[in-house]
Amino acid sequence: MISNNQQQPRENRMQRLISTRLPCLFIGWVLTLCPATLLLADTITLSADRSLAQVDFAVKELHVALTTAGHTVAIADLDALPKDDVPTRIVMANHKQAAIIDSMRLQGASPSASLCAEGFSLRRTTSQDHVTYWVIGADAAGIMYGGLELAEVVNTTGLESMRDNDQHPYMPLRGIKFNCPLDERTPTYSNHNGDSQRKNVLVMWDMDFWKAYLDDLARFRYNYLSLWNLHPFPSMVRVPGYEKVALEDVQTVLQTLKMTMDEKIAFWREMMRYAKGRNVDVYVVTWNIFITTEDGIYGNKGPYGLTPKFDNPVTTDYFRKSVKQLLLTYPDLAGIGLTTGERMPGLSTAQKEAWAFETYGKGVLDAAAAQPGRKIRLIHRQHQTGAQAIAKTFQPLLDHPDIDFIFSFKYAKAHVQSATKQPYCSDFVKDIDDLKTIWTLRNDSNFYFRWGAPDFVRKFILNIPYDVSKGYYYGSDGYIWGREFLSKEPETPRQLEMDKHWYHWMLWGRLGYNPELDNDRFIQILNARFTQVPARELFTAWQAASMVYPFTTGFHWGSLDFQWYIEGCCSIPSYANTDSGFHDINRFITLGTHPGTDNIAIPDYVKAISSGKEMVGTTPIQVSRQLHASSDRALRILNQFPQVTEKELTRTLVDIRAMAYMGKYYAHKIRGATELALYRNDNEEEHRNSAVAEMTQAASYWDLYTSTALRQYHNPVDLNRVILVDWQALRQEVQKDIAIAASTLVRVRQY
Question: pTM for the whole thing?
Fold first, then answer.
């Protein structure tokens, strides 16, 4: 048995504190209020097989939780189970370890008989004065998740509060879509035109970043990490016959990191091995057909006669060998994903799929032939092609015993935070028949503020078609979730975006694993993390402010990232119908609603009012009221909180307030746009006056929103595929909305 003596027993520390620093009168007060059971912490023996990296991680997390709670912990191997004279012990084991399970049954407990992969059972048994906590997993991942669950119980409500429970993963794959900017010469989508892309290239080559990131993924129950890059091969492999394509060093806009290809390969091997130890499988996903040239990723001529042409045999051979070499170079790489459609203009579905099979399909088959028995997954995005055509072309992979062929589909376009029901996949689900898919869940809405709405996430996940689902990956195209760069008071090194937005990312991982996890647990987590405000009220305010995103985007629906960005009220200019890209009051009238909601668009509402027809659904007026109610609830709670000093809590409360003010802005704007549309239809001055009043109020809340956000964030920010988002410059556009509402020039009936 190995005892951990780094932490002094709580009794000794308390006694020393009392004897050296406190007067006798205070000693008596402490001893009166603190019974001996609180001053004398139990020694807990923790038994586990630490040779398994996943289990070792859970042991470390549990050890920290227990020692922080005041317990003394001794760690032992499973083959040296403590005897019955140990008062408290924790045993972490696989359900197939017969001796452990027999010992457990002798104490009147047993794990679930239906444990599946990554599942676990927690049990508590007592024998005379001895207590044993059993963490029994279906596999190493299940033991890890069970250990993390127990650690969380210790952190939130104490070890003694643990209750027997069984958990199994709801979605088999719970993943991350991580756009990975490897180099200025091998960018992620679509080229490095945004601040987050430029500022995170070197982060991708920082092992400390990846280890901290992967630890978070494990804590949040993610088991899948997909790295997305337009053309990753030159930065990751040396392809036989095309050695000159491999890139030495890592180039960014401002500097170059000296790094050989051998060092790059060693880097990604270490990263993928570490990921395995956190039960995270790594994938590489590409778009197509991109090559690296002297003119950049969109150039047309590379070495060896490479061109971005589907009928160039050199290009076809290069891609096939690149896919094979990527898999052979990285034994821990779980698979590869591809898109047919990008940079393949004018090609028929059959031509696209033929090229994809000749390159990616045969490259995977080549790797499988070179390494018999290795399991490889090929993910084929259903992007601009039909599922049946894909399946027919890739039949050799579907028939291969070592290859798992699955589809991928963009489930909610670019904005998950829009509606809990997404209607876009109904035809696709019918088309794929008995095959499986992984869903792309895009968040190109929320970049600045700490978002968190558990009820929304839970309902969203439960609405995903389950029978055809392999799982999902969640992430963005317009933002790199590497290290934070927007804060006016950055940490050194810069904080992980995953750590800043921990609540957001935790929700999408934990509820994908167990959607039955209730809000009381999240409140307990908040209570343990933030001590200066009531956790239940914080939970309520946070969720209320976060609902501004789906309430607004579900009504004002620009489905793609470049068509709508809520935190800036903008898009590319051509879609906004304004030179600045700002979505003005006119665009709020004309843009439709999300088809998964029952929201009624403003033109349809005006027509119904004009004709006297009954309306079925949520009217624009009701959407405005929803936004007011949600935002007001958050602000009311925030205004009741005391002054806080905790750094993270202070920043979180500013974010919640900013989101609430943003909600008030959109509430007034939607009402103002509706009133203006009514005025243009019937010329009633009452409607025009109401429109002016609403837009005046909207402008005041825009100022509150942006001034609150600017207290802790830099702006403007250059967003990839949108525009330069400049809150202060857009204030002029906000003021123009008042003038548009006041105008008497547009008086023609439009509806």
Answer: 0.93
